[in-house]
Amino acid sequence: MKFTRHFDPGFAVALGLCASVVCADPPANLLTNPGFEEADPIFVEFPLGWAEMPALGPRWREIGDDPFNPPLIRSGRRSIDLPTLPGQRFAGWTTNTFGDQGQLFDPPYEYGAGPLVVRGYYAIPANDPLLNVLAGLKLEFRRTPPNFSIYLAFEDLSITGHTDGQWRRFEFMVSQADFDYYHQLWGGPWPPFPTSVSVLPLRFLPEPFDPSTEQSGTIYWDDLEVVQLPPCPADLTTTSDPNSAGYGLPDGQIDAQDFFYYLDLLTSGDSQADLTGSSDPNAPDYGDPDGTIDAADLFYYLDQFVAGCLP
Ligand SMILES: [Ca+2]
Ligand SMILES: [Ca+2]
Ligand SMILES: [Ca+2]
């Protein structure tokens, strides 16, 4: 099968896709102070809504704060960094902190609803690359205080080296399938379920940890975003271009990009294309993968596409 990437309305009508299903407005950013521009009203040396670990390790940077080591800033006047910290295995910023009115800065999370996506930008100077250090983002899904224990945590620590001082986009998603994977592995679920999520840009020294190992480098973060997307089974991607950011990451919208992404899965024989054993909604194996990729899977996907997002 060969499919064009240009969305052809006639082709769509032929498939019954003409009423492209679009969810409500894009979900709002759940993070406080996502660009690190605002100071805490009491502890004015620190950014509102963010706590650093260890104390006095990571730095809140501002244009002109150090002429010998000027910060990288993506927008506004400020960003955060995670510099070389000798002897420290872990350093990070976290939203797991409270405001002066007792408000929790961890974004809320609705368990069992749509995927949670964290996006942001990082930059690493060419003259201060990450050496023997991994960096990335961690999400700690927490139960309701005063319990506040971590239900499960997920991280992507794939950043190392440098970006030549350029800002790069970073995206990371946790869906219900990720929770279910660990439920199956470890005999869950384990209610009560999480109601908030701590967001941590961090740097970490991989195993084996040896304090004498030479490690160095500074990573900057700016313009972070956390959204929880609506549950839309047919929403598979942001773009159908494999070379674009957002390929394979849902965006809360169901449109032609998702359809072409599914066709990519189907034509490449990707096991993720196997959605059902039957295209008959009354059959017992409707919606249960059967190990075979065939026309029934395409028709099942089209059913989900037309059904749109769940209420
Ligand atoms: Ca900023
Ligand atoms: Ca989409
Ligand atoms: Ca199948």
What does this molecule look like?
- The chain is an alpha+beta fold.
- It contains four helices and ten strands; from the N terminus they run H-E-E-E-E-E-E-E-E-H-E-E-H-H.
- The strands form two sheets. A five-stranded antiparallel sheet has the order 1-4-9-6-7, with no helix packed on it. Strands 2-3-10-5-8 form a five-stranded antiparallel sheet.
- Helix 3 runs antiparallel to helix 4.
- Residues 1-14 and 16-23 have low confidence and may be disordered.
- The structure holds calcium ion (3 copies).
- One calcium ion binds at residues 235, 237-238, 250-251, 253-254, 257-258.
- Residues 235, 237-238, 250-251, 253-254, 257-258 line the site of one calcium ion.
Instruction: Please tell me the total number of domains.
Output: 2
What is the H/E order? HEEEEEEEEHEEHH
Instruction: Report how far the terminal alpha carbons are from each other.
Output: 34 Å
Bin the helical content: 10-25%
Mean pLDDT: 89
Structural class: alpha+beta
The tally of helices reads: 4
**If you consult CATH, what is the topology of the largest domain?**
Jelly Rolls
Largest sheet: 5 strands, antiparallel
Ranges where pLDDT stays below 50 over 5 or more residues in a row are: 1-14, 16-23
* C-alpha geometry: globular
**What is the CATH class designation of the largest domain?**
Mainly Beta
Strand adjacency order, main sheet: 1-4-9-6-7
What is the number of E strands? 10
Per DSSP, what share of the residues sits in E-state strands of 2 or more residues?
Answer: 15-25%
The CATH architecture term of the largest domain is Sandwich
Bound molecules: calcium ion
Radius of gyration: 22 Å
